[in-house]
Amino acid sequence: MSAKKKTPVTRPRFARGSVGALDFAALVKAIQRVHEDSAAAVNRAVNTTLTLRNWIIGGYIHHYELNGQDRAKYGDELLARLAERLEKIGLRRMDERELRRYRAFYLSYPLFRETLSPEFTSALLFVPAIRETASPQFALTGKKLVDSLSFSHFAELIEIEDPLKRAFYEIECIRGNWSVRALKRQIATLYFERSGLSKDKEKLAAMVHKGVEASEPKLAIRDPYIFEFLGLRAKDAMTESNLEAALLENLREFLLELGHGFCLEAQQKSILIGKTRGFVDLVFYHRVLKCHVLVELKVDDFKHEHLGQINTYVTWYRQHMMAEGDNPPVGLLFCTGKDHALV
Fold first, then answer.
1. Same domain, 144 and 125
2. Which range marks the domain in which residue 168 is found?
3. Which of 13, 141, 198, 265 has the fewest CB atoms inside 10 Å of its own CB, making it the most exposed?
4. pTM, whole model, 2 decimals?
């Protein structure tokens, strides 16, 4: 009897470049990516938990002030006595100022009730009141706010009494992915007051209903722009090249001041018009508008020739640099001052 041939066992082989192929460098990158994604998820979870914790603490304080059996015993000293007791049992970040902030947070954001899970809500010793915001037509959902902003952001926002103004900063903060420092700076430099939206409630409401990421693609021109981050005094003498250099050294702050969607593409962009060579100070591409934005910096008041220069550059870009799908370019002229009638 002849021996039966064994069927060879074939082992799967990964072709180079296929989904399953891993060299050592790819292994390192894969592990790094998983780690970073997991860390980001943990940070989001921690941020959400901390925010809701502070909101619930504020709710407990408010509920006690209204219904506490022995609240009359503490009166105006309630928060000071509570902070002292909490410190003794080892709880940090529970001083009187923070407790007052938690209470204000609870009162300012009643819509956060919707973000609590049924299990979480059933474990509470009080029932969160169902209250509308002062201007519900401008409000983002509680989940969107909790998922997008940290409690440090909310600590700044609750200082704003006007619900319209607060909603404006909520929207812009999420759209621009502002840090807490950026939010504080925009509030301090009166971004809301300088924006046309401060007088257009219908437009702001439309922004909310369309969604933060899908807000209408319109270039918001602020007037005036505030460049105090350069460390310049109002009367400092400066050439245009020095101003440009100072702006680029502070590029992050400059882009925040310009607004949402600006991406720097070129500095001193050389263009040839006939036999004349010109230089555009700064060229941006606006990813929302899908167009180039040309910036000219002038360290004097507005003049006719300034407008002619920027218009020439815009016309050249429209003829030579527009790609398929692009919208016509836009020019921004920065001057130290202007005669409104002349402009």
1. no
2. 133-216
3. 13
4. 0.52
The structural domain count of the chain equals 3
Element (H, E) at 286: strand 276-286
Q: Does 254 or 183 have the greater pLDDT score? A: 183
Q: Are 105 and 154 in contact (CB under 8 A)?
A: yes
With b for 16 or more beta-carbon neighbours within 10 A and e for fewer, the 294-327 pattern comes to bbbbbeeebeeebbebbeebbebbeeeeeeeeee
**Structure tokens given for 256:** 């925040």
Q: Token match 């007088």: residue?
A: 199
pLDDT score, position 209: 45
Cis bond leading into 224, ω under 30°? Answer: yes
Residue with more model confidence, 296 or 26? 296
Q: Pick left, alpha or beta for residue 259 (phi over 0 → left; psi -120 to 50 → alpha; otherwise beta).
A: left
Q: How confident is the model at residue 212 (pLDDT cuts 50, 70, 90)?
A: very low
> How many Cβ atoms are within 10 Å of 282's Cβ, its own excluded?
23
8 A C-beta contact, residue 289 and residue 330: yes
Alpha-helix residue ranges (DSSP H) falling in 68-179 = 78-88, 96-108, 118-122, 142-148, 151-157, 163-176
Residue 68 lies in a domain: yes
Spell 90-104 as b/e; 16+ CB within 10 A means b.
eeeebeeebbebbbb
- Does one domain contain both 248 and 204? no
Q: What is the CATH number of the domain that holds 285?
A: 3.40.1350.10
Distance (Å, whole) CA 244 – CA 331: 16
* Better-scored residue on pLDDT, 194 or 98: 98
Average pLDDT over residues 318-325: 89
CA separation for the pair 47, 44 (Å, rounded): 5
Q: Are 265 and 241 in contact (CB under 8 A)?
A: no
What DSSP letter does each residue of 292-328 carry, written as one string? EEEEEE-SSB--HHHHHHHHHHHHHHHHHTPPTTPPP
Tens digits of per-residue pLDDT, 272-285? 888 888 888 889 89
Domain contains 21: no
